[in-house]
Amino acid sequence: MALKLYGDDAANPLMERDHPLTGTSQYPDIREFETHLDLPSGTGSYHEIYFGDIHIGYGTASLADKVLLNFETDHETVEMHFALKGRSSAASGNFSKNIDFSDCQNNIIYASGMEGTMEWESRNFELFEINLSPDFFKRFLPDDSLLFETFRNSMEKGIGCQLGPSHHKISARMYQIINEIISCDRKGMFKRMLIEAKTIELLLLQFEQAADQSQTKSALKRAEIDKIQAVKDFITANSQSDHSLIELAHYAGTNEFTLKKGFKELFGTTVFGFWNDLKMEEARKMILEKEMNISEVADAVGYKNSRHFSTAFKRKFGIIPSQLKKF
Hints:
It contains 11 helices and 14 strands. The chain is α+β, with helices and mostly antiparallel strands and 327 residues long. It has 2 domains: 2-211, Sandwich (Jelly Rolls); 222-326, Arc Repressor Mutant, subunit A (Orthogonal Bundle). The strands form 2 sheets. Strands 3, 4, 5, 7, 10, 12, 13 and 14 form an 8-stranded antiparallel β-sheet that branches. The radius of gyration is 21 Å and the shape is globular. The protein starts with a strand and ends with a helix. Residues 21-27 have low confidence and may be disordered. Pfam families: HTH_18. Keywords: DNA-binding, Transcription, Transcription regulation.
């Protein structure tokens, strides 16, 4: 598997990788790379994790102007693409039309040995993608609908395609899984096991979205999406603090109604539902991995009353915190 990303100068690529993506890889252990990108009109970074059939990449960029990049790949892959922030557009002769992504969108893309151009817009840009070997992907691809069968047939013919004709919103649970993968501090086989399990769960959620034809396109304006994204980022970075909905709305420069309605539409959950899930996941990790008692964990995630914390924890996981400590 080889990937080359470059600007106007093909002789000096911004990033170049050559590593396997097969189940019989000679590199069964996890390997990771961190690449600093000196982009036209900005800078960025890209982190990669790969082993066996799975190659994960996630990165950020801060751009003063639009950036046009060229890319080349010589491999066959299925990409689980998540556009966390910013807009992008990719053009290649392997596809009948451009593949455009905006904030909070996801889809599954099949590609085989392609080259083309990518354009990133001028702002903060974040993406997360998982590339799977076709054999690994086909193990999970459902065969009970025309949508999945059409995608399978295109793969068999080597024709570039995306699973759904339109992209879907990244759900709150998808964001949680992505964060769990990025923040995973396990090592070796334990890290590989967790990442593979989370990859399969993400794939399941994408399949379920694709199969659900009832989803409607978001009516949110771009400025509203930016403000709601800012609230999500603030919550993620300050999960243990305490703020009212009005305070969060004022922080982002919007009103309470727009924040409530837009957050639910964009992420499929309420502001405080998303916030509470973050707290409970952090609490679960503390209980399992740190020498802390329940009162200390409750206080660490912002609960002054241990009983209220235990009630919230049971609502999320089905057991009280003290039961988890016994496992």
